[in-house]
Amino acid sequence: MKQLIGRPQESAQLERKSTTRYGIDPSIVKVCIVDDSLEWKYSTPFFQLFNIEINTGRDISQLDYFVYAAKFQPFFPTIMTVSVIYIFAVLIFFIYQLYRQLAIILSGIISCVGIVSSGIFLNSTTSGGDIFFWITAVGALIFICNTISLWYKKKIQCLRASTST
């Protein structure tokens, strides 16, 4: 244990309680947005989307906590978002093998959701918000390209089938 010179003992105990073996305790992130009412305007887009007024910090939804974590501690939310994009891409591939039209529609819907979610982070003033903007924008662009390529591939197959008969 390191020596803390010139600091009161209770401050050292508080420091030990607020950190874990891997860094900052995740419950502290939740407390920051709950206590900081000035941040509610900038980090609660889902409440603003549905025009819900926040009276206390306990009213904040889990999606808004995710946005707050993405803005200020973006590492794990970034990994989570990239994983979800990958899972959707694999899901679209498997659906395309069975139902081509459904895969094209789902890929288009996912790209629209990606555009909307990147719009949430468009004017962010934090580096985490910028990271999330680019991840969601690139993910949406990938799914737009995927939608166009699947549609074009289906169109070519339909033309080949009609010319061969």
**Helix and strand composition category:** mainly alpha
- How much of the polypeptide forms β-strand, as a percent range? under 5%
Mean pLDDT: 78
| Quaternary organisation of the protein chains | single chain
* Largest beta-sheet characterization: 2 strands, antiparallel
H/E element string?
HEEHHHHHHH
Backbone shape: elongated
Radius of gyration: 23 Å
> Can you list the strand order of the major beta sheet?
1-2
Number of domains: 2
Query: Helical stretch count?
Result: 8
Number-wise, the strands total: 2
Distance between the termini: 81 Å
- Which residues form runs of ≥5 with pLDDT under 50? 1-22
Helix content: over 70%
Transmembrane segments: 75-96, 103-125, 131-152
Keywords: Membrane, Transmembrane, Transmembrane helix
Protein name: DUF4306 domain-containing protein
Pfam family, one: DUF4306
Plain-language structure description:
- This protein has 165 residues and is mainly alpha-helical.
- The chain has 2 domains: 10-72, no CATH class; 74-165.
- The protein has 8 helices and 2 strands, in the order H-E-E-H-H-H-H-H-H-H.
- Strand 1 (19-20) and strand 2 form a beta hairpin.
- The longest helix has 38 residues, at 127-164.
- It is elongated and about 70 Å long.
